[in-house]
Amino acid sequence: MNKSKIKIALFVGGISSERNVSKASGKAIYGAIKSLGYQCVLIDPAYGINQPKEDENYFDEKDYGEIKLDNFIKTINSDLLNDIDLVFLALHGKYDEDGTIQSMLELRKIKYTGSDVFSSMISMDKAVSKTLFRVNGVNTAEWFCVTKDFNIQEVVNRINEELGLPCVIKPNDQGSTVGLTIVKNDSEINEALKLALQFSELALIEKYIPGREMTVAVLDDESLPVLEIIPKSGFYDYKSKYTSGMSEYIVPAKIPEDVFLNIQQQALMAFKSLRCKVYARVDFRLNEENEAYCLEVNTLPGMTSTSLVPKMAKVVGISFEDLIDKIIRISLDGG
């Protein structure tokens, strides 16, 4: 493969609540792609045809111009992608990793990194994902969903009868714990639902699993070592994820070997149950009895040099640049 002849468009930014996270991932991926010798152009689909003039403008905290969902269509239909061999998706969140951008790229027959439209869409729908987990033998916590016209007393009764407290209330199709609340008593349920429903048409209410945070990256149909996340606040929320020093990461996780292997196996089963491709990160809770519960599959996980997937890859001798290179090569070959 002659890397200097391969032109990659790196999609960064987007329009979701995780726009700044995407910029951080994009900046790290951009450096790796350039170091690897590929041609690389930066594109923020939220800007449409009015793209920044300088590369560094794509990663600035302040936006270069007006960002709109309509601009996605203008970007895909423009000449910006005429001679592109591959789109590397460094996008996160709604509209960006839920199949929206993937379906547009497929209409133009342009290859892209990560999972296809189906897997991307399903992975962002937590309720559907959990249903497929159950069908395919992946252990996941009990749950139910409510819409915006919910009856609060009926919801309270159902939580107490089916799940118990505490429970977790979150938007059905958001990432990075946006809009998530751990509810400890009945009086908190109404506000937690209102918060979650600001971000989604459905709120997912899930049994809370006390225990430890575990995650596993799957790369080219193989599970990487299990990583344990130890948030200093006690809960791995948005602040714990994206504030330096707020969490400790242990990889390989210090758990019994049989538990370690089971989580790896469950991660691969979850990955395959959603028909994911190339790479993803699968998140778990591990209770005091060492029973693992799958929370979700993230098909476009954070990809800075200090993000979780690169940490797991590093343990098995895959550097950040090698990881990006492998993702590119697998994607060019069709996943």
What does this structure look like?
- By secondary structure, the protein is an alpha+beta fold.
- The protein has three domains: 3-112, 3-Layer(aba) Sandwich (Rossmann fold), CATH 3.40.50; 123-136 and 210-332, ATP-grasp fold, B domain (D-amino Acid Aminotransferase, Chain A, domain 1, 2-Layer Sandwich); 143-207, Dna Ligase, domain 1.
- It is 34% helix and 19% strand.
- It is built from eleven helices and 13 strands.
- The strands form three sheets. Strands 8, 9, 10, 11, 12 and 13 form a six-stranded antiparallel β-sheet that branches. Strands 4-7-5-6 form a four-stranded antiparallel β-sheet.
Derived from helix and strand composition plus strand pairing, the structural class reads: alpha+beta
How many independent structural domains?
3
Poorly predicted tracts of residues: none
CATH 4th-level superfamily of the largest domain:
ATP-grasp fold, B domain
Percent helix: 25-40%
Distance between the termini: 16 Å
CATH architecture type of the largest domain: 2-Layer Sandwich
The number of helical elements comes to 11
Radius of gyration: 20 Å
Q: What general outline do the C-alpha atoms trace? A: globular
CATH class of the largest domain: Alpha Beta
CATH topology of the largest domain: D-amino Acid Aminotransferase, Chain A, domain 1
The whole-number mean of residue pLDDT values reads: 93
Report the count of strand segments.
13
What pattern of helices and strands is seen along the backbone? EHEHEHHHEHEEHEEEEHEHEEHH
